Structure formats: structure tokens, C-alpha cells
From TrEMBL:
It holds the Pfam family Aminotran_5. This is Cysteine desulfurase NifS. InterPro entries: Aminotrans_V_dom (IPR000192), Cysteine_dSase (IPR016454), PyrdxlP-dep_Trfase (IPR015424), PyrdxlP-dep_Trfase_major (IPR015421), PyrdxlP-dep_Trfase_small (IPR015422). It comes from the Bacteria.
Amino acid sequence: MKRIYLDHAATSPVAPEVVEAMRPYYEDVFGNPSSIHHFGREARRGLDASRETIAHAINARFDEIVFTSGGTEADNLAVIGYATANQDLGRHLITTSVEHHGILHAFRHLETLGFDVTYLPVDEQGRITAVQVEEALREDTTVVSVMYGNNEAGTVQPIEEIGELLKDHQAVFHSDAVQAFGLADIDVKKLGVQLLSVSAHKINGPKGIGFLYIQNGLTVSPGLFGGEQERKRRAGTENVAAAAGMKRAVELALDKREERFAQYERYCNIMIDIFTRKELDFQVNGSREHSLPHILNVSFPGANVESMLTNLDIAGIAASSGSACTAGSIEPSHVLSAMFTDDPERSRSAVRFSFGEGLSEEDVKTAAERTAAIVARLVK
């Protein structure tokens, strides 16, 4: 039985080209990039090349890219780092109710420090509006953080509109672009964001590396203390091998972006068409108009999601749930719960299928057929 991986939104396989790009930094170019001797300078050249490629990918400057351990650290550095460094300007912050926990838990932490946070509600598609942000703004607002595309429902937010709204306000605009990067055309100047988070392992790069774009002129308190790496914004010897891997992953993602976008849209349509043809009772969660193409979140009314995921795994299908299993109990997804406040069952029966490199149309068809058979068996 062929196993089919449909959980690329959780993590993606490392591309062979990425592994090869990293190899020299494990075998030969192993120096500390802060060292002034030949070995250190060689490592520094590799790190600088990675930073340059990544900056170019989002229309930023070389010195506006800070390497981190991934998206969560980038989110924390952006939100906590800016809010605490600039609290003399105000202590009011704005975000949405459907952010990744790397953002939500950072804001919860800031609340314990006396900050006032407004959590914007979303509609049934998981979207907010620029008007909501405008109505929530206060003179003492210093940070607005809205994710580009949701990791569970795939919904894309009106980032450019919000950026335009904020251009004459003191608040800086941060966006978690971890799921969107590599599929969306991200230009930080066009979007009007001053802070942007990205992680490599979502785009067939290595785990343990990401970056935060920090617009020049912003003051951000570091989350780590020690050396003067990353212009004193992120202490610790840089992971040069992973940065080189991320560089190659970014290049591959940009080269194939339009092709992958169309491909993943086809995959979504294939699954929906098969579910429809099999006469399943199902509901697609999120916005089909404003959505990342690689995420398909579907509720199957009457299905027990734990049984669904177990049966999918037995059938060779790797997918995930909008719920987290803790000590044998199901905790509904905070994203879907925010979207469907009057329909808790919808969030409890949701499965997320997410597409990525290495999948074929035949794989997707097979997965959809196996899923349909499982649903028909479980929902009677």
C-alpha cells in the first residue's frame, strides 16, 4: 500500500537540492561566521549569500533579515520584542482570534505584563476586514499583527488593505507569513508591513531555521542575550548550514510558485469533486475566493475525528485535524471555533488535507477515494 502524505501544512519533506546545498557547511565550510580567520570568513560568505537571496525574495534590504530558529521565534521576537521596546509609545495591541499559537501565546504573555490586547473576531470564512482594524485602533496602539494565510483553514487576510490603513498611524504592522510564503507573491513594501515571519520547513527546507523581516529604523528588544550576532537582535552562533538550505528552498519555491499554485488548486478541486460524486455529507471550511491553494479543510458531520484520523492513517493517508488530542479528549480548534461560534460540531468533525511537493494527481485521487470510503463507513 502506498502511503500518501497530505499534511504539508504541518511540515514538508526536505528537497534533495536543499540537502545538497547544506552538505558543504557540514563537511568543509564549518567555521564560525563570527571568526575572522579563513574558515570563519568562508562561513560568513555563505550566510551573507543566504540573507541576500531571502531579502530579495520579499523586496527587503540585506540588513533587514534576522535569522531565527523558525516561525514561532520570529513571531515572538516581532510581537514581544517590538511591544516591550516601544511601550513608551503605548500599550495597546491588536491581533485576530485565529492566529497561530506562536502569536496568540505571545500576546497572552504581554497581557500578563500589563498590555491591553484587542482580539478581532472573524466571519465564517475566517476573515477580518480593514474596517475592523480601523475601529479597534487607538492613539496608543503600537502593534497590529494579522497572519497572511491561516494554517488551518487557509484563509487569506486583506493584508495590503490593512497596510494602507496603518501607513499614517504609529502602529507597526506584523504578519505571520509562514503558510503563505512560497505560494503568495510577498513584497513587504507593497503590503505595507514592517515585520514579517517565515519558516523554512514549510517550503521543503530544513527545520530549525526561519527569519524575521524587521524594517530598518525599528527598535526591537532581543529575545536572547549573549553575543552580538544578527546585529544584536538574536544572540547565538548562526546555523549556517540551515541558512544555506533555506536559501535553496526559497529559490526553488519562487521558481515553481505559479506552477505549484495552479497544481494545488487542481488538487483541492479533485478532492471536492470526488467527495461530491460519492454523495458525502461534507462542508468546506474557509474561503475559496481568498485562500491559500494548498490547504483544504473539510468537516464531515457525524464523523468522530479521532476515528477518522486513525482510519486514514491505517489506509495510508497522512492528514491532520483541526483539533488537538490531549489526554484522550478532543479540544476543538480555536480557529474553527472562532469561525463557527454557533456550530461547535463543525469544528469537531474537521480534517485538514494539505498539499505539497512530491504529490501527483493520482495520489490525490486515491486519497480522496480512500477518505470517501472511510467516511461512508463511519457515518451511518
